[in-house]
Write a structure and sequence with these properties.
seven-stranded mixed β-sheet, globular, about 15% strand, 7 strands, L-fuculose-1-phosphate Aldolase, about 260 residues, 8 helices, single chain, alpha+beta
């Protein structure tokens, strides 16, 4: 499913991206949100709608355009916020977008795997390679951690999250969830696929620890054989697969 790049297409893209996170177990109930930069001080973001049914069942209408401070871009009419509310944790999105001009999309969700790994102190080690190269690269590069288990509802907390993220693609919010970012024309796809990769890394790490934690880390010669397969493969193709799964499950929002 190739989506148009107009406003309606971007809203549909974000809505389906939210559904992917819910369908794959990275977001439970009504928690989680995705944003997409639309200008220097604006973004589309998944808001709380008047018929709220959770991330898994996000509608395109739940995606609204707001300024980074949460004010609606359109005060009235169909694009206003009447009946909708921005996420409490909008500062996660706003402050990352402010701090990272290279970032165009932000995912925030609560994968149980990452939560448990963080709470139990299970390290996300590079113990596999070609099984999942993007997740292996995350482990090799190291995944930063924001240590506070707080609701990030104030700009100063959002700035702490952005500082903890630094220039990394993903961040663990200990006792809370994750943030993942994407850049460029397929920023949403990239951010979602990075969140999925972090979930893979955490699930393997948890199971390895449960089995005794004897897995050895990749030797340098194996690391050298791990190619960067590129965004069209790592991001676009993988995201398209997850949209196809939504369609198969009867959950894809079509135009």
């Amino acid at each position: 499913m190739d989506l148009p790049h107009g406003s309606g297409g971007r809203r549909l893209l974000l809505a389906n991206a939210c559904r992917v996170l819910g369908a794959r177990g990275l977001a439970e109930d009504v928690l989680g949100h995705i944003s997409l930069r639309t200008g220097p001080d604006r973004m589309l973001v998944r808001c709380r709608g008047p018929l709220e049914e959770g991330l898994f069942l996000t509608r395109a209408a739940d995606v609204r355009e707001v300024h980074l401070d949460g004010r609606p871009v359109a005060e009235e009419g169909p694009d206003g916020l009447a009946g909708w509310a921005v996420p409490n944790e909008l500062p996660i999105h706003a402050e990352i977008l402010r701090a990272r001009p290279d970032v165009d999309a932000v995912v925030h969700c609560h994968p149980p795997s990452v939560l448990l790994a963080g709470l139990e102190g299970v390290p996300l080690r590079p113990v596999f390679g070609a099984y999942h190269i993007p997740a292996a690269r995350m482990a090799l590069d190291g995944v930063p951690v924001y240590p506070r288990s707080v609701l990030v509802r104030r700009p100063e907390l959002g700035r702490e999250v952005a500082e903890a993220l630094g220039d990394a693609p993903v961040l663990v919010l200990r006792g809370h969830g994750i943030a993942a970012v994407g850049s460029g024309p397929h920023a949403v796809e990239q951010a979602v696929v990075r969140a999925l990769a972090l979930d893979v890394l955490a699930r393997v790490s948890l199971e390895s620890a449960r089995l005794g934690g004897r897995a050895v880390e990749l030797p340098p010669e194996d690391v050298a054989e791990l190619p960067d397969l590129g965004g069209p493969f790592n991001d676009v193709m993988v995201f398209r697969h997850h949209l196809a799964r939504l369609r198969h499950e009867g959950l894809l929002l079509e135009q």
